[in-house]
Every structure is written in C-alpha cells, then in structure tokens.
Amino acid sequence: MRALEPAHPSDFFLVAASSNARAVPIELPDVAVVIPAFRAAETIAGVIASVPSFVRQIVVVNDGSPDRTSDLVRDLRDPRVVLVEHSDNQGVGAAMLTGYGRAVALGAEIIAKMDADGQMDPEHLLALITPIVVGEADYTKGNRFLHERELRSMPGRRRFGNAGLSFLTKLASGYWDIFDPTNGYTAIHATLVPLLSAGRVGKRYFFESSMLLNLSLLRAVVRDVYIPARYPAGATSHLSESRAALQFPWRLLRGFVRRVRLEYFVRDFTAVSLYLVAGLVLGLFGAVWGVWHWAASAQAGAVASTGTVMIAVLPIIVGVQLLLQALTLDIQNVPTQPVHQSVRLVSADRGMIGRP
Ligand SMILES: Nc1nc2c(ncn2[C@@H]2O[C@H](COP(=O)(O)OP(=O)(O)O)[C@@H](O)[C@H]2O)c(=O)[nH]1
Ligand SMILES: [Mg+2]
User: Distance from the CA of 118 to the center of ligand 1, in angstroms?
Assistant: First the structure.
C-alpha cells in the first residue's frame, strides 16, 4: 500500500495497492492532529506551521507549561488550531486523552499524535494514516526499526533494553507483529476513542504502551509504518530511562495477566486456556515433586529411583510443551479484522432508532 500526495489538499488523496497499480482517488476523511505540549515555547509554532494542509483540526493541549507555550499558540493565525489548557501538569498521556476527546467532539474521523518538540516528521503523516483511511487498520504507529540502519545507530545498552521491553509489550498486548512500542507517532480511528478505558491509559510515559494494551482488549488492528527517527535540535527527551526500566516491566506483566484472564478465561475458553492450565499444573507438579525428592534423597545420601526421576521430568517436559503450544496459538490470534467499521455501523444504527 502506498500513499501519494493529495491531488487537491483537503479533498482527495490517491492510494495505490502496489507501485505498478493504478492509483484510485479516495475521499480523505476528517483528519485531526493532537499535539501534547509541555515547555514547548521554542518549538511549538514551527511544529504547528509544519502540519500538512489536509489536516482539518490541530488540537494543542498545553499541559500546564510554566513558559509561554499557550501565548504563542494563541497568537497564531492558523484557523485550524484549537487550544486546550490543563491548569496543572498531568503528563503526556493525560494530555492525549484530553486532546482525543476534543478532536472527537470536533468531528474528527482519524486522530494523529505529533509531539511539540518537532520529533514527528510531517512528511510521513500521510503514510501513517493510510492504513486507517483504506480500512486496513484501526490504529497505526511509527516504527523506526523496519530499517537496520536505525538499529545500528543505537547504543548497545539501549538496544538491549528496547528489545526486552518490546518483547514484554508483545506478550502483554498480544500484538506479536509490531515493534518499537514506545514510538510516539501514532494515529487512531476516532470511533475507538470512546471505547478506551481512560482509567487504564497511562497518564505519563507509559501512554503509548498502555494504548496497545487497551486496543488489544478491543481486538483492534494495529499496524506498523516505517518512519525513520528524527532528533531535531532541542528535542531532549524528559523520559527517565531508569524509571522506565523499573516501572514498565511490572505494568506490562500486569497487563499480560489481565489480557490472558479476559481473553482466554472470561470472554472465551479455547485450546489456549486448556493448554495454559494443563501446562502450568503439570510443570508445577513436576518441579515440586522433583525438588522434594531431590532434597529427600540428598539428605538420606541415596540415589533417587528412575521412577521418581521420571515422575518429575515427564510432567515438566510435557508442561513446557503445552505452554509453548499456547504461546504459538496466541501468536496466531493477532487481530486481523479492523473493528472501526462495525463500531461505526452500530453507532449509526443507534442514531436511527433514536437511542443516544
Ligand atoms: N516531558 C513531558 N512532556 C509532556 C508532558 N505533557 C505533555 N508532554 C508532551 O509530550 C510529548 C513527548 O514528550 P518528550 O519528553 O519529548 O518524550 P519522548 O520524545 O517520547 O521521549 C512532547 O510533545 C511534550 O511536549 C509532561 O508532563 N512531561
Ligand atoms: Mg520528544
């Protein structure tokens, strides 16, 4: 899928399924951009000026900045800009929830997130929203690593931490086919916004990861779009790596337990549920039995019988196999059918029969 530049800004844009197919015009939906801004006086005006012309609304959420961020936004002449104020600093996730709400109220159909520090290259916005426009995805995000050049430029320690967190995010969200989960360049179909459980969206830097956990419970389709990293001057991240390393794994593991419970034991009971229970019971039994008898025979100075060893080893091997099988089935269970169309139909239906 390839997006071409809009033929007429704000009307249509062209989408071609492959590079040699004829491009077909598609009516561009109402696209809004939300910019969470904190201490962004130096960069905000430039970022707003760079938002492509096909974007209809630009919602800037000033997250209690002590500097002149709001004054600068108010002085701008761009009629697309809507400024929302947080009286106190609440974090990037909280700012995004406010921005999403406002963009939906303004009638946006697709809502993208661009940071106030100029880290998101507007040239890639069209490519980012295309899978949603053509109905292939409910949510898209940038992925710096679809190109190996980016991986090479990252220091070893960060690469390791990033890979570990990415794996935990896959486990927790069930989106096994995406990578670079903390990438902040994202777009969502507006019909999904009211379905997010706001209480479970991370108010600070866990925002992007928590969005994936939320979307997976809605079985939304998430797509990665290759967007190279951009580090403009002045874009210093406020994210504390050590704090992320301490907080994220714990929150991701909790998300994993919650997902498994809801997906395989509350809403459904599948082969995965069975393999999980059987695998855990067998594995635990084998381990406890093995340790117990090993301690007993070490104390008595006697060698454990072959039968005793078998009773420990066999359940462990079978248990691990069952858990691996559950994992494989879970990987095959990544959502592939976008949900925003059905959500839209249901809402339209409700409107017709006069229910709110
Ligand atoms: N640091 C920080 N950024 C915030 C906050 N609220 C909103 N933001 C905005 O969130 C975006 C991402 O912040 P940044 O520190 O650049 O994060 P990173 O680029 O993901 O490491 C920027 O547009 C900030 O202006 C907040 O409380 N703290
Ligand atoms: Mg940044």
Answer: 11
